[in-house]
């Protein structure tokens, strides 16, 4: 009988997007040693990315309700460079400069359109605590000059707002303003499959 936990939380989107994201992150984080992931979700990105970048350690985190699921993925994949999840709620546990000084990279996927905009701003304010040269990678859908990049993203926006009014696809320009205020400059805006972006920033 298999020891694999087949009832653990599962995201098909993560299965679909993990390889294209990895193709970017392997260069972005080539010289980085410690990555903090905010909003790890199921943990599928962490257990896929980290073993392919075995020069670094990948710290998972999420709200308390997702900690168990992430642990179940770590147990099954038996990866050595993924650290068990920290409970981090940006609304409650942020900024955390003492924690952040341990990391030279930060990754977050599909969180900016889930967190309320004030929480997204708080997230960026906290990033002021990262050291010069640190890299920030943000994956997800964004609008440009108020325009959706596709009809499917516009439909997604309606679906998000029907769930929670504070959710919504963010304007790239507003994200860039917050990142710049926290000392990050944009290195590259990657167009990704399924009308997503992967934004790569570096701390000045
Ligand atoms: C759409 S899921 C994305 C999960 C995963 N990163 C992925 O791409 O599949 C959004 C994640 O953001 C997390 N999240 C929501 N609000 C948060 C907050 N205030 N602080 C930290 N994480 C939060 C959720 O718990 C969830 O795991």
From TrEMBL:
Pfam families to which the protein is assigned, alphabetical: DUF938
- What's a GO biological-process term for it? methylation
Q: Where are the transmembrane segments?
A: none
Is Metal-binding there in the keyword field?
no
What InterPro entries does the record point to? DUF938, SAM-dependent_MTases_sf
GO MF annotation: an example? methyltransferase activity
Q: What is this protein called?
A: Cyclopropane fatty-acyl-phospholipid synthase-like methyltransferase
Originating species: Pseudoteredinibacter isoporae
């Amino acid at each position: 009988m298999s020891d694999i936990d087949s009832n653990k939380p599962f995201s098909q989107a993560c299965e679909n997007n993990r390889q294209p994201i990895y193709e970017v992150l392997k260069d972005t984080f080539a010289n980085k040693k410690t990555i903090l992931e905010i909003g790890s979700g199921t943990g599928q990105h962490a257990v896929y990315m980290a073993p392919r970048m075995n020069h670094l350690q990948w710290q998972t985190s999420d709200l308390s309700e997702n900690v168990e699921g992430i642990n179940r993925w770590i147990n099954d994949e038996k990866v050595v460079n993924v650290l068990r999840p920290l409970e981090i709620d940006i609304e409650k546990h942020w900024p955390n400069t003492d924690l952040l000084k341990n990391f030279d990279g930060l990754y977050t996927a599909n969180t900016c359109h889930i967190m309320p905009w004030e929480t997204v701003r708080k997230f960026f304010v906290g990033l002021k605590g990262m050291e010069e040269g640190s890299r920030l990678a943000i994956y997800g859908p964004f609008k440009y000059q108020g325009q959706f990049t596709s009809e499917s993203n516009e439909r997604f926006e309606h679906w998000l707002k029907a769930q929670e009014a504070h959710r919504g696809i963010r304007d790239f320009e507003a994200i860039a303003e917050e990142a710049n205020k926290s000392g990050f400059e944009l290195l590259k805006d990657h167009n990704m499959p399924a009308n997503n972006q992967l934004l790569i920033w570096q701390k000045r």
